[in-house]
Design goal:
The chain is α+β, with helices and mostly antiparallel strands and about 270 residues long. The chain has eight helices and eight strands; from the N terminus they run αααααββββαββαββα. It folds into three domains: about 100 residues, no CATH class; about 60 residues, SH3 type barrels (Roll), CATH 2.30.30.60; about 80 residues, Alpha-Beta Plaits (2-Layer Sandwich), CATH 3.30.70.100.
């Protein structure tokens, strides 16, 4: 006879069968909750030491906690004399029906595991997913959360993330600023290019790769020029706006006209 059986036999003689089951149930739940807290503490430490992205921690914690609570529920039910085998069999039938009703949730969970395995982005990366742009905050059990530049939080279903085209702006550490401007046909090309290269000299702009300027196309009213400047990913918008502002200054300094659509009308007498 095991130690637990001896205790149950002693409690049965002392308190009766029903009271013993109730007390056993309470003890199992209390001990089980304590064990779950200890296990989760171990899981948290393991996750902190692991190389997994922090955005994935919540997904793993949720799954582990769910499994532990299900096991505790089965053990506690068994202590009350409930036929756990029958419960498991019933749960299997119900799970089939429920799975049909929660296909989207299951697809999102599977999508979460797919993201953890393929790692198309990391916590803190600037990404564009399903036409939404922002910084990756968390990969949850069902949703991936992004924080936008204006501090909005966007939750995208994991199945949509897996199916969408993912643009990761942070993975290489650099981004290219592309700016297109127009100048009058009367402005010498060399003068326009000189002004553009001067406009590229702003804080945050990289010297390697070097800025690049060239004629992009010939329009009906003006010549379109393109200016390309590289920056670190975190400096992209600062460089973008700084270059835009400086283009206007350098064009004015070199007396370059930024043309706009216009129509010349010639009258014959």
């Amino acid at each position: 006879m095991t130690f637990m059986e001896q205790i149950k036999q002693w409690l049965t003689g002392l308190m009766g069968g029903a009271a013993t089951k109730a007390l056993t149930f309470v003890v199992i739940v209390a001990v089980g909750m304590g064990i779950i807290r200890m296990v989760m503490a171990v899981v948290d430490k393991a996750l902190e030491k692991s190389k997994l992205e922090k955005a994935a921690h919540s997904l793993i914690r949720s799954l582990v906690k769910t499994v532990l609570y299900v096991l505790l529920g089965l053990i506690a039910a068994s202590s009350l004399g409930i036929d756990v085998t029958g419960v498991i069999a019933l749960a299997s039938v119900l799970s089939l029906a429920v799975s049909l009703a929660v296909q989207d949730l299951l697809a999102n969970v599977i999508g979460g595991f797919t993201l953890l395995y393929t790692q198309p982005f990391h916590s803190g990366d600037m990404v564009e997913i399903a036409a939404e742009s922002g910084t990756v905050v968390e990969i949850g059990m069902a949703y991936t959360k992004l924080r936008t530049g204006d501090n909005k939080e966007i939750s995208i279903p994991n199945k949509a993330v897996v199916a969408a085209d993912i643009v990761n702006y942070s993975i290489t550490g650099r981004r290219r600023v592309d700016i297109t401007v127009s100048a009058s046909y009367d402005a010498p090309t060399d003068t326009v290019l000189t002004a553009l290269y001067e406009a590229a000299q702003v804080p945050g702009a990289l010297e390697d790769p070097a800025p690049f300027a060239a004629i992009d196309s010939y329009g009906d009213h003006a010549i379109a020029y393109v200016l390309r400047v590289w920056s670190d990913t975190q400096d992209y918008w600062d460089v973008y706006y700084a270059v835009n502002a400086k283009v206007r200054q350098t064009f004015a300094a070199h007396s370059i006209e930024m043309t706009y659509p216009h129509l010349n009308v010639h009258l014959q007498k």
